Amino acid sequence: MAELEKMHHLCRLRSTLEAFAVTHWRKSPKRAQVRERFWEHLERLRLTATRGDYTLFHQEDALLHRELITAPDIPALVKSWETVVSDLDEWILHVQQVYWPSLMSLYREHVLLLEAWDSADDWVAEEATHQHLEAGWYRLAAAREDLRPEIDPVDRAASFISTHFASRLEVEWVARNVSFVSASHLTRLFRKKLGLPPHVFLKRVRLDRAAELIRSTPDEISSVATRVGYKNTSHFVRDFRKRFGVTPLAHRKAGRET
Hints:
This protein is mainly α. It has 13 helices and no strands.
């Protein structure tokens, strides 16, 4: 257990360093060029995942994260990161090989991570970084039936959904890869704890965030819809009216009058 705790602390330290790097990269004039390299790494991750090569995937994963940590051009940050990663490297590869039965699932987690890094919200990028880099520890702890509060399936899923609401999420994938339970069991747990199923929770998170954006930004309604994960603006307007009793434009007007 002491070794597990040590790994958890190192994972949290690494996620803190990379969250710092994400914030600085997002403000960098070189953001577009670095972003392009991120997606090149992601494509190589996809190719190695389809081959099921854990070692090559792990190596490419490290290159992606090194790309991030060097982006702010802060030598002390890179040095600290390298120290932490050297202590974690073998453990991370072991956890990937043992606790991720599918590399394609791990690849999908990287897709969601990069989408979060591209988000318009700094807090989304930062929180996604923490979740991604601590996922291995959670998988291991769950496999050992660790019952500490932060392993709670509902809390894990709710936190993940609240961060990745703008991405395409399926309840089955979240249940299996975030909460480590079946979709039906997660749905039962959600209903018991929150009074609604996961897919309704996701819709509420999207609509509540949209309501904030409509009041606080001049963005077009279609842009807000896209930003919170809707592909169809008319569906967004329908769901918004059902949730709040007014159209998005009426909601914006009411906000200006208060």
